[in-house]
């Protein structure tokens, strides 16, 4: 399982979070920053139904399915 954060730009300031797995899926903790504390993220691809809320420490626990990818965007 691998994951990364795209910080965004002037036109897309929230960026996105990508999680991929070529085998067993699971959960990956990702640090997105304390500026995002309390923000809620969802899987734009619709593969994961549960939202992720960023904690006080700036981390969220992002899910991905077996042999799949998930792209999380911030809910507005």
From TrEMBL:
Pfam families: Alpha-amy_C_pro
Residue span, Alpha-amylase C-terminal prokaryotic domain: 19-72
Enzyme class: hydrolase
One MF annotation (Gene Ontology) recorded for this entry: alpha-amylase activity
InterPro entries (alphabetical): Alpha-amylase_C_pro (IPR015237), Glyco_hydro_b (IPR013780)
Family matches, as Gene3D superfamilies: Golgi alpha-mannosidase II (2.60.40.1180)
SUPFAM superfamilies linked to this entry: Glycosyl hydrolase domain
Keyword Phosphoprotein among record annotations: no
Keyword vocabulary terms for this entry: Glycosidase, Hydrolase
Entry EC number(s): 3.2.1.1
Name recorded for this polypeptide: Alpha-amylase
